[in-house]
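Justification of resources, computational component.

The compute hours requested in this renewal are based largely on the per-chain cost of generating structure records like the one below. Each record pairs the submitted sequence with a full structure-token output. That output is archived, and it is also reused by downstream analysis tasks.
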Amino acid sequence: MKDSITRKSITFFMLVTNRDCMFGDYGVKSFKKIYDKLNHSEKQHFKLFIYLNALTTKNLNEYAVKWAAYPYVQIFDNTEKIRTKNFVAGETITSPEGIDRVRDDINENYDELWTSELPKFNTDYIATVDADFEVLDAEFYFHLLLALQNPDCLFASTCYNETAYCFDSYSNRNMHLYERNHTWFCIYKKEAFELSERSHFYYEEIRDGEVHAFDSAAYFQNELRKIPGKKFYHLPNKYQANFIHYGAGSKNISINKSNISFYRKLMITCKIGPIRKWTNIKVVNLLNRIARKLISKTFKKKINSLSTERSKFIFNQA
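The structure output for this chain reads:
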């Protein structure tokens, strides 16, 4: 089955800032789990395009050189591009739809780069992947490719949220947040960028005094959802143990080189348990459930602290 679904060319777009490097180091390496399952011909059409976004010389020397050695990696360094700009963290960025948001740091923003760069790739599939996304088992990837075999399916992702009324911690507002196939691992067919004229920026409207919002890429996806007969896919729960997304990991200012290894192991264990493979699946599932509960309870205070920390982003502490 794998041979019949991996003949398409694909480019993954990973944006990496200075604060993403530690998580990105695990994420970039983890793509080898997919790459190693491809045959020689398929490997020629599988690319992880890493967009280095205003990295310091230190990080360029430490990470960029290392990542460039992977056969599936292509790197673009925007240092020269940044030198011609005068970006300021917290400054206003206005989307093509006229919606203002703030710049996350002194670099290019992911919304604007997804809008400008993704359509440029000349591959059958074009995907976004976060730097803090790590592949644990490649099986989920081939399942997504299988879903995309449906000619009507325009995009497929690991995760999805339906439309909900919720509180947004970044803006301190209640809002109607519209459905989105999450961007931390989302594969689009090339034609999607020809069918939707919307940007990947955050979008919102005020209706009857209430906020109706589309998170990054959701407004772009919403235009595609309006097309009759088109389909969209996300993974069933059984594949959730195949990957981990640390979730705005770069916003955790207390995570550093001395503790990231522990944090990574803790989060993986809390999600899927310490036991990966064993012949007796029922026993594995039982032991992992027990372990997850014990570990989550033991480190509950620390986990809650980190979750709260990344729900806000303080520019002057970056």
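Residues 255-317 form one domain. The radius of gyration is 20 Å.
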